[in-house]
Automatic annotation (TrEMBL):
UniProt keyword annotation of Transmembrane helix present: yes
Name of the featured protein: DMT family transporter
Organism classification: Bacteria, Pseudomonadati, Pseudomonadota, Alphaproteobacteria, Hyphomicrobiales
Major subcellular site: membrane
One GO cellular component, as annotated: plasma membrane
The organism of origin for this protein: Rhizobium glycinendophyticum
Subcellular location: Cell membrane
Membrane topology: Multi-pass membrane protein
């Protein structure tokens, strides 16, 4: 049983949940695109400071795969965050949380259409239960809230964000056999560079807020933990159990975000928080139990 991959993915989603809290704390202290660029600039500086010798060793493979590595940074990192941050200006946090829960479905669908990777009926059941947990979290235990949701321009952007991260996740099957330091260095730089047009757009709209002291602390946190450590662990998790199964763990993000809000922001623990966590974890467990029995090299 790939316990190490599970641990990697749980830590990943915990850090991504922390990113949600950082986003809340950033309001009025640093604007979204300034935060997005800053986090990837910090991640690039950190990884570059420790990876130059390793990059030299992997240089031939990096040169041979530079387009793929830039794609990882531009699509999986910069585009996803750009779409996400912009979408939340137009749509509700409930919509955003629910629509992020669609990422595992997109991974399933794209994997099947492109590679005919099968999904068992039990895995589908596990996904539905896990998604229900994310919905319980987003609706604060009142599922009737979901019936009143309306779709707008922000929801289209959220769909684009989900597609971007699903495509990134699936494309990890082609990642070159290089050290993790090298694997993070080029995409992090690509993410920082491709965030610049978004930063320029934000400045042109007169909405850019340069970071103050708290803003810089948030940038440093996001640059080191959600941007760097979590991405390394996510890659390891996908490598260990495949894109379909790893994608289900994304439903833990709103749950961890809520639990961290209780711990760090003093919000109240409600019954639905515990129910949501049980549903998400139970759904993941069911999907793992119901995975196809034959080894699938294409999904490894």
């Amino acid at each position: 049983m790939p316990i190490r991959a599970y641990i990697y993915l749980v830590i990943t989603t915990l850090l991504w949940g922390g990113n949600t809290i950082a986003g809340k704390l950033a309001l009025g202290h640093v604007s979204p695109m300034a935060l997005s660029f800053g986090r990837w600039a910090v991640a690039t500086l950190v990884i570059a400071s420790i990876s130059v010798p390793q990059i030299r060793k992997d240089w031939d493979l990096l040169k041979a795969n530079w387009k793929l590595l830039i794609f990882y940074g531009a699509v999986g990192y910069a585009a996803f965050n750009g779409f996400l941050y912009t979408a939340l200006k137009y749509t509700s946090a409930v919509n955003g949380a629910i629509e992020q829960g669609a990422i595992p479905v997109l991974i399933f669908v794209i994997n099947f259409l492109l590679f005919r990777i099968p999904v068992s009926a039990i895995q589908i059941l596990g996904f539905v239960i896990s998604f229900a947990g994310a919905a319980v979290t987003a609706s604060h235990g009142n599922l009737q809230t979901l019936l009143t949701l309306t779709l707008n321009y922000g929801d289209l952007l959220m769909l684009c964000a989900g597609i971007a991260y699903a495509v990134y996740t699936i494309s990890l099957r082609w990642k070159p056999a290089v050290h993790w330091k090298s694997l993070m260095a080029v995409p992090a730089l690509a993410a920082a560079l491709t965030s610049l047009p978004l930063l320029w757009w934000e400045a042109g709209e007169g909405q850019m807020i340069l970071p103050d002291a708290r803003g810089w602390m948030i940038i440093l946190y996001c640059g080191f933990f959600p941007s760097l450590i979590s991405q390394i662990l996510y890659i390891k998790g996908v490598e260990g159990i495949g894109a379909n199964r790893a994608g289900l763990f994304i439903n833990l993000v709103p749950v961890f975000g809520t639990l961290l809000s209780i711990t760090l922001l003093g919000e109240t623990l409600e019954y639905f928080h515990i129910l949501a966590l049980a549903l998400v974890l139970g759904g993941i467990a069911i999907a793992e139990w119901g995975k196809p029995r034959e080894p699938l090299k294409a999904n490894a």
